[in-house]
Amino acid sequence: MDAEYCGLQQGSSSSCRAADAVAWGAAQQQKRQRCQGSSSTSSSLQISEPEPQDLNSGEIVEEEDYYMEDDCDDDGDGYDEDDYEFDEADFNQHLADKFDDLDLPPGVEATVPWLQKIAAKEEAEEPSKSNTADENADKYKQFKQFDTVQNFSDHHFAKNSEGEPARAWSKRVQHDWKLLEKDLPASIYVRVAEDRIDLLRAAIIGPKGTPYHDGLFFFDVHIPSSYPSGPPLVHYHSGGLRINPNLYNCGKVCLSLLGTWSGKGCEKWNPAQSTLLQVLVSIQALILNEKPYYNEPGYEASANTPHGQRNALEYNDNTFLYSCRTMLYSLRRPPEHFADLVAGHFRVHGHTILAACKYYMEGNDVGSVVPEEESECKSSDAGASSSSSNAPKPGAVKANPPTRRITFNTSLKTLYEDLLMEFNVKGADTRRFIVEKLKKNRPAAV
Question: Long-range contacts for 129-133 (Cβ within 8 Å, ≥24 apart)?
């Protein structure tokens, strides 16, 4: 073997001889280590040092060039090491960015210096966020139920001008204003225009125990010159959605009091007794009700039949989905003069709306009152924790068909995610729902 090695050594270049000598020397060293302690002795071979390589010989070792290229230029842009200045802050930010998508166990962040710096930066930003939230909360608290504004630029009836109003007409309108200011329910807000006293805008909160609960619904009202001999004109801000048989996607409001539907007796407009306040309260009570399906003419006859009950439940499902979409529409494009109300309302009620979404996705009937405990903590068996008033009655239609529920849950899940994001931006109490979301998305431990 030694003779063969020497022969190969003579026929190779100087650089190869050096490399082979190093390899052969290492092999002989291993042999000597294995043989230590043996009774037989052998003469140790003296390995001469490899000859120095001639760096000017023109021979290039490709492996060396590969590693040099990898170490010096990762992105193809070379730099002079003498000109490079280490920026610790930039380096720490670069490391932190790599950890953005990682779900680190609790406590790990405290051991990572660059994460500590990022956390400290976020804590420094918290006061400004808190100040913004407090400012928004103050605006909401100060938002009056009834108030005057200069004018409306986006009012549906802004172009309906009928010239100089009569004195008797103006006096009656101002009388209705006083009734609104004095007797408005807590769930209705109104703004009237000083420059155009024939225009007003109302926001109505959906009643609890209905598929509209905690939603915000906006209506533009025009008081024609024939008022009070004739009723006012009312337009609903639908966003292209028909959430009720009486509220069309084009904005039409179908109500006997407005003369847009047939009625009799006190259902019809009475110049001596009917008022703007009555119109708004009727919309809230008669239209935004528990079972809007039966608002459709002729459908009330099926109220006590299984077929009618099932259709009413399905209609409630769609209505709640549309109500959630209306919330998003209002959050992203609040009507003029109502931005503070929209932001504040959903900041306060965002938690209960999200709780209702989860409660309904668990199989409870849309429109049933969400138990208070559902709004406070997650219940693994929401049906068992619901109040007795919401428990299914013997012989009642308990739920919609499974396929219908799957479709409903899929649509509501998407809306829930959008609402969670929007409510969180507005400062709503979303901590519980975000924690649940993070736990759900966390990979299972192996």
Answer: 132/427, 133/347, 133/427
Task: Indicate the SS3 state at residue 200.
Answer: strand
Answer yes or no: are the C-beta atoms of 365 and 316 closer than 8 Å.
Answer: yes
> What pLDDT does residue 441 have?
75
Q: Is 203 helix (H, G, I), strand (E, B) or coil?
A: strand
What is the pLDDT confidence band of residue 281, given thresholds at 50, 70 and 90? very high
Side-chain-side CA neighbours of residue 343 (13 Å): 21
Residue 254 designated active-site: yes
Q: Which element (helix H / strand E) includes 228?
A: none
**Sequence-distant contacts of 153-157: CB under 8 A, at least 24 apart:** 153/336, 154/335, 154/336, 155/193, 155/196, 155/199, 155/201, 155/220, 155/336, 156/220, 156/222, 156/235, 156/237, 156/251, 157/198, 157/199, 157/220, 157/221, 157/222, 157/233, 157/235
Torsion of CA 369, 374, 380, 385, to 10 degrees: -50
Which of the four pLDDT bands, split at 50, 70 and 90, describes residue 176? very high
Residue 444 near residue 354 (C-beta atoms within 8 A): no
Residue 420, φ and ψ in degrees, nearest 5: -60, -45
Q: With a cut of 50, say whether residue 394 has pLDDT above it.
A: no
Of residues 159, 148, 224, 158, the one with CA closest to residue 190:
148
Q: Which residue has the tokens 């769609």?
A: 318
Residue 173 has φ and ψ, to the nearest 5°, of -60, -45
Compute the half-sphere exposure of residue 381: CA atoms within 13 Å on the CB side of its CA: 2
The CA angle 234-235-236, to the nearest 5 degrees, is 125
Residue 417 predicted with pLDDT over 60? yes
Q: How far apart (Å, rounded) are the C-alpha atoms in residues 238 and 333?
A: 12
- Listing DSSP states for 241-274 in one string gives ---BTTB-TTSBB--GGGTSS---GGGS--TTT-
Q: What angle do CA 115, 120, 124 make, to 5 degrees?
A: 150
Q: Is 239 helix (H, G, I), strand (E, B) or coil?
A: coil
Question: d(Cα 434, Cα 385) in Å, to the nearest integer?
Answer: 22
Q: Which residues contact 148 (CB under 8 A, 6 or more apart)?
A: 191, 192, 193, 194
Q: What is the pLDDT of residues 19-35, one digit of tens each?
A: 455 555 655 555 555 54
How many whole angstroms separate alpha carbon 378 and alpha carbon 434? 12
Task: Please pick, among 6, 16, 250, 254, the residue that the annotation labels catalytic.
Answer: 254
- Which pair of tokens denotes residue 5? 């090695």
Which of the listed ranges 42-51, 64-73, 132-141, 307-316 does the model predict with the highest average pLDDT? Answer: 307-316
For residue 61, what are its two tokens?
């070792």
